[in-house]
Please model this.
Amino acid sequence: MNQAADIIGNIYVQKSAIMNNLKEESVAVYAYITKEFNKGNITENPVFQFMYRSYYRLDHSGLMPEFKQAYFAIMEELRGSVDIDLIQIIDRLYEYPRRKGDKSVQFSFATKLANTINRSYPIYDSEVAKVFGFSKYHIKNKEQKIKRYMNQYQYLINTYNVMTNDERFMEMIKEFDRKFDGYHLPIVKKIDFIIWSAGKL
Model:
C-alpha cells in the first residue's frame, strides 16, 4: 500500500491534469442518481435502476438479472441506515452466481451501494486500487478475500481523513468546488472523484 503522504504528493503534482480530466457529466449523473434515490422506493423506479447500472457499469460485469434485482432490493431495504454492514451485503449477494456459473465477492459494488445510502462511505474500485497501490494477488478463499478488502477499505477511510487535513489536498477540493459550483457534494464524494480521475491518468 502507498503511504498517505505519497498519495497526496503524487496527486498534487498532477492536480491540473486530474482536474481537467474531471467532466461535469460524471458529476451531474451522480447528482441525478442521488436525487432519484431520495424520491423513494427504487425497486419501482426503472429509470433510477437504468441510470445506476449504466453509471456504475453494473451491466458489464457478467452478473445475472437475479443479482441485480437482489442488489436494488437490498439497497431499498437499507435505506436510511447510518451504519452499513458491507460484509453482510457481500454475503447476501454472494449467493447469486455470475453468468459463467461461479460465485464472486462483489466488494466494489457493495461500496457503491453503501455510498448511495450514506454518502460518507467512500467508493472502492479499480481506479482507487491503482492510486493506493493495493495488492492484486488472487485469493480464492472467500473469507480471506473479504478480509483483505476490508483492511484496504479501512486504510482508504483513514487516508481520506488525512486528506481532509492536508492543505495541498484541500486546495484541490476548493478547485473542485469552483469547477462544479452548485452540486453541493459531500467532501468524501469530492475526494472519490479526484482519486478516480487520478487512477484514470
Remarks:
- Residues 39 and 119 are 16 Å apart (CA to CA).
